Amino acid sequence: MNEGLAARIRQCAEIAGSGDELSRLTAIPRRTLEYYLTGEREPKVSRCVEIAKAVGADVGWLVSGEGEIRPKPAEANTALDEDRFALVPLYDVTVSAGHGLLNGEENKLADLAFTRYWIKKVGLCLSQLAAIRVKGDSMEPTIRGGDTILVDMAHTQIQDGQVFVIRDGETLLVKRLQRKLGGVIRVISDNRLYPEFEATADSLHVVGRAVWKGGLI
Fold first, then answer.
1. Residue 208: exposure state from Cβ atoms within 10 A (0-12, 13-18, ≥19)
2. What's the Rg (C-alpha) of the chain?
3. Which among 18, 96, 116, 214 is most buried, taking Cβ atoms within 10 Å?
């Protein structure tokens, strides 16, 4: 028998506390285990697995002698691949309402990762993007309560039929906008239970256009 294997089994017995304890942990008869400890017999692979498992050792190390008795757990790679992904701040839509909306770190909840390829493909500017959570059902089925939307704050020019984030006093609204004659803007909810209303272009503060949404199914 390979003397190195016998020596490693003896190390396992030391970890267990004794040969008797290793026998108990593995359910290998004490006399059989003694043969392995002395090198008189060589255990089958299944027995090596039992021995290694009993003491938390690496079975590859036990069989071959390569590596560590207890290999260090692989460190999770949490670093973002900055060449491929960009981070967009997610703000709390409730506390973000009012002046200073989407401008301060104090209202940031987290960062959302988007591929730089996608941002470039759809023609967005990273520094002008922010994500907010939506509450309520006024834009269902297009946007549901609890969804997260991506807002392009560089796009504030109203285009008919597109969805925008607007500010009405201290309240944020996510609505579909449509121009009418005389500088009047129709503010439309996709949920027809909510009546539309009109505002003037001068009185309507457009934060940005909603360009993406995400949420639970």
1. buried
2. 32
3. 96
